[in-house]
Specification:
Blueprint lengths: L1 E7 L2 E7 L9 E5 L4 E4 L1 H7 L6 H4 L3 H7 L5 E5 L3 E11 L2 E8 L3 H5 L27 E2 L17 H8 L1 H52 L2 H28 L8 H25 L9 H4 L1 E7 L5 E7 H17 L9 H45 L4 H29 L3 H19 L20 H64 L5 H4 L7 H21 L8 H8 L3 H4 L15 H17 L5 H81 L1
Antiparallel strand pairs: 1-2, 3-4, 3-7, 4-8, 5-6, 6-7, 9-10
Length: about 700
Amino acid sequence: MHFRVSFFKQTPYFIADFNEKDYNSNIILYSSEGEIYATSKNIHQIIGSRQGSIFEVLNNISYYFEKYELGTIFEYDEDVTCSMQRANLQIDDSMLEVLYIINDDYFAQIKNLGKAPAIESDEWDYKSNYNSHITIVQTESNAKLEPAISHSYFSTMHSGIENNENFKNEENKESSSEKVMKFCNSMNMKVRLSVICLLGIIISTLLLEKHLIKDLNLSIFISNFATMRFLGLNILSDSRSLDLLSQGYNLSSTETAYRTSLQTNLLNLKIALTSTNSDISNYSYLTNYLEENEIITVEKLSSNLYRTNKINLFQALQKVIQEGSAIANAKFSNFSDIQTNLFYIYWNFPGETFRCLNASLYSTIKEMQENTLSVLELLKYLKILAFIPALLIISLSVRDIINLEKYNKKNWKSLSSLSIERKVVLKEKLIDRLYNFHGLQVDEVQLKRTKKKIYSFIWKSFIFKILLLELSSIFYYFISIYVLQNQISDALISQTDYRFSSGLRRSLTRTTYFWAREQFLDKSNASFITNILHPFPSIPHKLQFLIDDYRHCQKFINYGPVKKYYNDEMVSLMIGNPCTQLNNTIAKCQSSYISMGIVPSIELYLNEVRRVATYKKTDWKDIIKLEQYSKLISSSVGSMVNIFMNTTDAQVADTLDDLVVTTLLYFLLMIIIAMLIVFTAVNKMKSDLIDKIEILKYFEG
């Protein structure tokens, strides 16, 4: 417990520690020789500025001092009776003693004794807001005690307190201190509540963010659509290969191999179709284009009889599976019986079904990317909630700040009204103490009389500290949104772009081979286009369109935005030695075209497609080699998709972890600012205001 004495032996301002006492309102501070230096306020009102020896003020007190040791409570029984206790007090280098007058009944006993007027003097008193605080009043050390200060002086205490206006002012000051503490404690509580509010916002936002971003990673649907398109083209190619084998053509594989491939593709298409149709219904923002898109299919009923049907994409693919199964199970001897099944595959899949699959895939990608952007935009608005705690502190603390500012203004007004003489004395004694105890030489500054009121706002510092919270929130907002969230958005959109482009490249590899073979067959009128009214203007036109698409797709994959996610593994597949990674999927990789890298291999493949399709001297053996080449390219680009997806998935996961770490660091920073800066600012306001109130007590007491 601390209390302050304004001056001791003309030495300004020191602080001493006392053990707490319940009887702290009636004390006398004196030297070991008995010289009185200071008294509490109650006793000071009786003896005023008179000083001398405590042995003269209290009759026969030396007897009690000799009889009872320090710290012992004893009964003083002379003219009046009361309990007393002595204690040592060390102030700077001096050892003083304090006499506690314990019983307040002492004053009741002397109430009816004779009265003598209290002697007025300049005094400095201090009383804190703590109940256990002791006030000591300065007296002049060199003044002589006026003779015969009788115990009747003490009789003025009780009545003096009742009628003393300064005592009422002291009660008001004490009440002001309590109110200041109340307002400041209220502000601290609001800061704590705001930090708790921030914690709730951060946890909720993080959980929601991770959940939403997890739902955004739906590129599997794009993969399924692309896979269904690729499997459909394989079914078309395998069906045509079996048809050609039944007609006596030599191909790169056997009948058994083509049948097995066809059956495998039919099974995989059925699985992908059922899975996609079931899973896509769980996401309300994705349209089930398998059921929404309608196409017109053509069936051959007899040699000259055809029928059109209006069905959705799901039903069309089921029909492909049905007709393909009939082809896979037909023997060559009965192949003439499955011409209607072959017609359905030849006519419908390369035409309306393929077009509708591409449109559905593109629309799904567009919906997913739009939803990704809208969800991330929503997260931007959720992040704005991080600004709420600081705004909440300001809004809830406005009333407290206004009230504190009123007390601050009142205190400054009172301090400004002090006389210049008192300020000069205070300044001189402070300068003396700085020199005597700290060796600091302070230049003399002349105080000038002025009517200008000194006033310093306290709310400015507090608001500035709150702005630090806002600045931290702004910094966190920009880091999480424009750095981390942009990385997540870019990775997710790149996944959809790459899946689409890579899936398209894989499909184009198979379909360019298919149409190159048909163009070769068309030269001898052996193409199926020759025998049916197919909705294509010409095979060369169709093939050239596919080659242009392939080159455009290849350019996007090699030089588009997705290339920033290519790691060493991807680069090795593209232009290095891909066989180190493809040995398990491609037999005899080192002796194949793929060994030079996927990018140059694709370029070579496209040149071969163009040559086979356009040169008149093309041999059927070139068609067989081209089929083998297309299978190698299809397998290799499929491996690139898996590597790219693993890379971007890791990027999204790492960025989410960075987001969590950034959010936690932001929360810790907010706690540090709140505890070490905002709380300190509030406590400083409280300390400054209470100090001014207590200083004013000295001047006004």
